[in-house]
Amino acid sequence: MVKERARILVVGGGYVGMYTALRLQRRLKQELGRGEAEITVVTPDPYMTYQPFLPEAAAGSISPRHVVVPLRRVLSECRIIIGEATAIDHAKRTATLTTLATEEEGTGTEQLSYDELVLAPGSVSRTLPIPGLAEHAIGFKTVEEAIGLRNHVLEQMDIASSTRDPEIRDAALTFVFVGGGYAGVEALGELEDMARYAARYYHNVRPEDMKWILVEASDRILPEVGEDMGRYTVTELRRRNIDVRLHTRLESCADRVAVLSDGSRFPTRTVVWTAGVKPHPILAAGDLPLNARGRLKCTPELTIDGTTHAWAAGDAAAVPDVTAADPDAECAPNAQHAVRQAKVLGDNIVHTLRGEPLETYAHKYAGSVASLGFHKGVAQVYGRKLKGYPAWFMHRVYHLSRVPTFNRKARVLAEWTLSGLFKREIVSLGSLEHPRAEFELAAGGKHPHNPGDDTKGSS
């Protein structure tokens, strides 16, 4: 029994934040009903994004609405605050928040007190001071970026189809992806597949007219699926005329020219940056212990090391891997661990409130799957290596089983079934980024839509 009102604050609405709150909501159902506990979730978006489906959303295989889970529906017993935690003072058990209301009111920030803290803000894109990157590149961490990129690629094909200038056409049909991890390889594979299909509907754009370039600073791509599968992926991408450049860095993309460390120069209107992530800034704006990489030092029980009543998991946390032979090994910051950690974290908070012993998080890494486009993929699961259609099928089955809620599972499965029966959608809805554009023009204003803008086109 919880003897007094327990105020639980969850910072972040991603994998760990949503699944932890969901676990607490189920385990503390009676306490919540009696008013003995309350769960508050602070998140910048009112939904959780299932990121493994972003490449398929970009390719048009899944509706963007179905790769996100509405938090208010799933976490019906929790208080959802749309905003961001900007500082944590765990000594005083307070968090400093900015919300949509504080911005409207102009009141600055507000303080929120708590008894138990779950820090799960995730990570943010890790960028470098590369000339032109901030002005011209687009990331691939959000559903808005994924759909924006899809619209942008189709728009570039429209530009190439209608221009008579060979330089503009060449730049429009050159697509540079930086980063050979999951996000970069899957986004490139799916979008190249989509563009190749779309080209059949353009009278003067052929698949071989397009240049797709993958830039990776290390000597391999997709390290998660193993060295052999990584090499196979390079071979498979090159077979599709995708230019894979290892040991290569992007040095500049100013003036819409991608300059690589090997001396190559590519005029391009599309630079996609997926070169890693870094811990969320909130971690440094608090009084909790961090490791050398800026992640929270955690125990195998998912408490933050050296503190009480503070918990963390996922991208923000350095959690010891108790299943590894190396005593210094840490769990990889991926969804496979995050979902399982959230379950243990939620249970351990309940154990703490009820005076019960804590559980240890232990999960032996099962392997990884990656999609390279329609009916193409690679996988290494429990030591077994798969490629081509079997790996692609396993990728779909695994992620369908992991996407939250039966509602989303059913909708995604229905969309996959329909996409197998009918032709792909190849429409670009880039104008959704500027819904007032036509009205502003009609009212005598200046049309804000610029067809040459490298980063516009989100829906």
TrEMBL record:
- Could you tell me which Pfam families the record lists for this protein? Pyr_redox_2 (PF07992)
Q: What is its EC number?
A: 1.6.5.-
Highest taxon, organism lineage: Bacteria
Q: From the UniProt record, which GO molecular function terms apply?
A: oxidoreductase activity
Compositional bias (Basic and acidic residues): 450-459
Which intervals hold domain FAD/NAD(P)-binding?
7-341
Region annotated Disordered, chain positions: 440-459
Please give the SUPFAM superfamilies that the UniProt record associates with this protein: FAD/NAD(P)-binding domain
Q: Keyword set for this entry? A: FAD, Flavoprotein, NAD, Oxidoreductase
Q: Which family does it belong to?
A: Belongs to the NADH dehydrogenase family.
Question: By its UniProt entry, which PANTHER family does this protein fall under?
Answer: NADH DEHYDROGENASE, NADH DEHYDROGENASE-LIKE PROTEIN RV1812C
**Could you identify this protein by its name?**
NAD(P)/FAD-dependent oxidoreductase
